[in-house]
Amino acid sequence: MKQFFQQRVAKHQKKMQRYLRYVINDHFALTMTFLVGGLGFYYADLLKTLPSPFPLGNVIVLVFWLMTLHLGHFASLTQLPDAVFLLPKERAMRQYLVQAFLYSCYLPFGLLILTTAFSMPLVVVASTKVTFQSTAFFILLLWILKASHLFVQQLDFYQGMRPKRWQFYSLWLSSSTAILAVSLFYTYLLGLALAIIQVGSFYLFTWKKNTARLDWERLIQVEQSRLHRLYQFIHLFTDVPEMKGQVKRRKHFDILLQKIPLRQENTYLYLFARHFLRGTEYSGLYLRLVVIGGLFLAFINEIWFALGIGALFLYLIGFQLLPLGQQFRYTTTVLLYPLATSQKEQALKKLLTVLLFVVAAVFSVIVSLTLTNWSAKLLVSGSYFVFVGLFVQFYLPYRFAKTNKKLGI
């Protein structure tokens, strides 16, 4: 079973590496440069204004680390057919899940390093007892606490263990809070010792003494949910075949579709608008990016950062909606209908103009609340709308022509 799991890991990593080529691209690098640079700038300025010691800082870090420990789930890599084909091997699945646990411990390690390194300046400012040399100890401490959390998660895979899972989760949450408090307010060495005791206890009572039978349906469901969240993130950058968009009635949006005149030249506009409003693929992506961009702007009170972040998210939203123009190229009824190819580009222009203008309006309202100078508010808000016009009039035709050339249209 160990070799079997390694084969699955290799196959899964090969697929993820193929997607990473599209995720870690120029757009991602540009986005991260702006976000990390902006956050680092404000974070450094904030630390200079804080007194030392600053006990409230330790409380903030404690809550932040507890939230971080909830990121990353047990990766069993099980698949739908396993409930049938691996059922005779249920006794051997314990060895399989041991390998899955080790793999799941490895996955969040990089995230724990980043979050600990990010929060350590605040820890050093908040306490006179902690220095940057203790960063490695805090990383190890959080990693051990995460291992205990994974022991609790795997209880969900066994029949009749869900009530106990919540009991152990409550115990884990309270003990982890106490361990982090001891580490931040007293000494991290004692906290590290307590974390080792905690993980040993959870190993003994949630794994070693667990003799319940596997709940195959739940085991596979949890893994499918984990992969779905991962594919949702990747889908922000590229098409993912595993992401099956759902179609919902959404009757309350009919009033918007009725605004489109029922004429032949509006065929593509109606199709694109209907697909956007009633499908979850593009509408969900649109709303997520609007919310994320709005949250960033809500904490920015400097004109050039507000301008750059807003324009960046407008570009990302428009860029992610461009594939909408190719949604119906294989639909037989659309191909049979006498429609000019140029109508498709014009329809996409109209739809993106409306959608991006709505985003620009939302961002303008947010910056009008965060910026204090009226001239800055007008400059940033006006720049958003100008950017939308430039994107629709110049960048969209360029991308549309490039896509059509690639597809041989």
Automatic annotation (TrEMBL):
One of its Pfam families is EcsB
Q: Transmembrane helix as a keyword?
A: yes
Transmembrane regions: 20-44, 56-75, 96-118, 124-145, 166-182, 188-206, 285-307, 313-339, 351-372, 378-396
Q: Which UniProt keywords apply?
A: Membrane, Transmembrane, Transmembrane helix
InterPro entries the record matches: EcsB_ABC (IPR010288)
| Keyword Flavoprotein on entry | no
Question: What protein am I looking at?
Answer: ABC transporter permease
**Source organism of this protein record:** Enterococcus lemanii
